[in-house]
C-alpha cells in the first residue's frame, strides 16, 4: 500500500473552553477523496485549518509523507493547496488579476493559462470585470479556477460547493475525482450531499470522532 501523504495522530482541539475533537486519527492516502462531515460548529473548518498549518491551537501529531510536518514544512507547503470557505477574492481586482495574485506565491503562470482556467470555470467574458460586480457564485468560481491549474497533490477544500450551481458542482466533483485518479488526495468539507464512489469520511461531532 502507498505511504499516506498526511497522517493525523490523536489530534485534539479546544476552542473557547469547548472540546471540538480528541483522539482524532486518520491517514490521507494517495488516490483518495475524504469528506469531513458533521453538524454546524463541530470543527470541520477548524480541522482543515489545522491541517493546512493555519491554526496552532491543537495537540497531537501531524505527519507529512511519514515525517513530522514541522520538519518537512517546505515540502508540505509546496505540495498542498488550501481553499478556505471564504473565496478570498479582492473585490476591486478582476478575475484575471485575482487569479494572478492567488498564483503569485507559486511559479509564474502565463496569462493564457489563467484565462483558460477562468473560461473553464464559466467566467469567459468576465475576465476583466471587477469582482465586486460579479455574483457570489461567480466570485467563488474565480477561486476555484485554481483547481484547474493546481499541481499540488494534496487539496484541502472547505465548503467549495457553496453558491455553485448544479453544473458547477458536477464539474468540481469531476476535478476531485481526477486529482485522486492522478495519485493525489482531496479532503473536503461540505454540507452538499457529496457521495463519490470510494469516498472516505471523517465524522465530527459524535461522541467518538471516527474515520470510515
Ligand atoms: N475565531 C474563533 N475563535 C474562537 N472560536 C471559534 C472561532 N471560529 C470558530 N470558533 C468556534 O469553533 C467551533 C467550530 O467552528 P468551525 O468553523 O470549525 O465549525 P464547522 O464544523 O466548520 O461549522 P460550519 O458547518 O458551520 O461551517 C464553533 O463552536 C465556533 O464557535
Automatic annotation (TrEMBL):
SUPFAM superfamilies: P-loop containing nucleoside triphosphate hydrolases. Residues 6-212 form the ABC transporter domain. It holds the Pfam family ABC_tran. Keywords: ATP-binding, Cytochrome c-type biogenesis, Membrane, Nucleotide-binding, Translocase, Transport. Signal peptide: none annotated. It comes from the Bacteria. One of its GO terms (biological process) is cytochrome complex assembly. One of its GO terms (molecular function) is transmembrane transporter activity. The keyword Ribosomal protein does not apply. NCBIfam families: ccmA, PRK13538.1. This is Heme ABC transporter ATP-binding protein CcmA.
Amino acid at each position: 500500500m502507498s505511504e499516506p501523504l498526511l497522517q493525523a495522530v490523536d489530534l485534539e482541539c479546544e476552542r473557547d473552553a469547548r472540546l471540538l475533537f480528541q483522539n482524532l486519527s486518520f491517514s490521507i492516502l494517495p488516490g483518495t477523496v475524504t469528506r469531513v462531515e458533521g453538524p454546524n460548529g463541530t470543527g470541520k473548518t477548524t480541522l482543515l485549518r489545522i491541517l493546512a498549518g493555519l491554526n496552532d491551537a491543537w495537540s497531537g501529531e501531524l505527519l507529512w509523507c511519514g515525517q513530522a510536518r514541522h520538519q518537512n514544512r517546505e515540502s508540505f507547503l509546496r505540495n498542498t493547496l488550501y481553499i478556505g470557505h471564504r473565496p478570498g477574492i479582492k473585490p476591486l481586482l478582476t478575475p484575471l488579476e485575482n487569479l494572478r495574485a492567488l498564483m503569485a506565491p507559486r511559479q509564474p503562470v502565463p496569462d493564457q493559462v489563467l484565462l483558460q482556467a477562468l473560461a473553464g470555470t464559466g467566467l469567459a467574458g468576465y475576465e476583466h470585470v471587477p469582482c465586486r460586480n460579479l455574483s457570489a457564485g461567480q466570485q467563488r468560481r474565480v477561486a476555484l479556477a485554481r483547481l484547474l491549474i493546481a499541481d499540488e497533490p494534496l487539496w484541502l477544500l472547505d465548503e467549495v460547493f457553496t453558491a455553485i450551481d448544479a453544473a458547477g458542482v458536477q464539474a468540481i466533483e469531476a476535478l476531485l475525482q481526477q486529482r485522486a485518479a492522478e495519485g493525489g488526495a482531496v479532503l473536503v468539507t461540505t454540507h452538499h450531499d457529496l457521495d463519490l464512489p470510494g469516498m472516505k469520511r471523517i465524522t465530527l461531532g459524535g461522541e467518538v470522532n471516527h474515520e470510515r
